[in-house]
Amino acid sequence: MAGFSDFLEKELLDHVFGNAAYTAPATLYMALFTATPSDSGGGTEVSTAGTAYDRADITNNATNFPAASGTNPTLKSNGTAISFVQATASWGTVSHWGIFDANTAGNLLVWGAITTPKLIDTGDTASFAIGDLDITLD
What we know:
Blueprint: E1 2-4, H1 6-16, E2 27-35, E3 44-45, E4 56-59, E5 74-77, E6 82-86, E7 92-100, E8 108-120, E9 125-128, E10 134-137
Antiparallel strand pairs: 1-8, 2-3, 2-4, 2-7, 5-10, 6-9, 7-8
């Protein structure tokens, strides 16, 4: 299950009710967290210092995010695998993910928990298989 950020909730409401334009980012950036983010942001993103960690860039298109399906909840999943670079040092135990509109800083759009938190150690490559990332609305 995923949570929309306060930023994205406001953008979507203004877009649908008020006819304020919202342009979806052409590229999305997936981040990994060792402490829980929230709708207002926060959490502890994996450290970049000496670990080779970088957010995974994902082209925002219908191949990577096929059409939403279902009702109660309505579901959007990843249509392709999402992989990070290989860790050159421990990233810690990754428990959450988030999607941003920029590779550094930027606005958190949506976040969620990883079903089984995992220690990402030297030599590991964090990844999400097709369909593992679920974004829902009900």
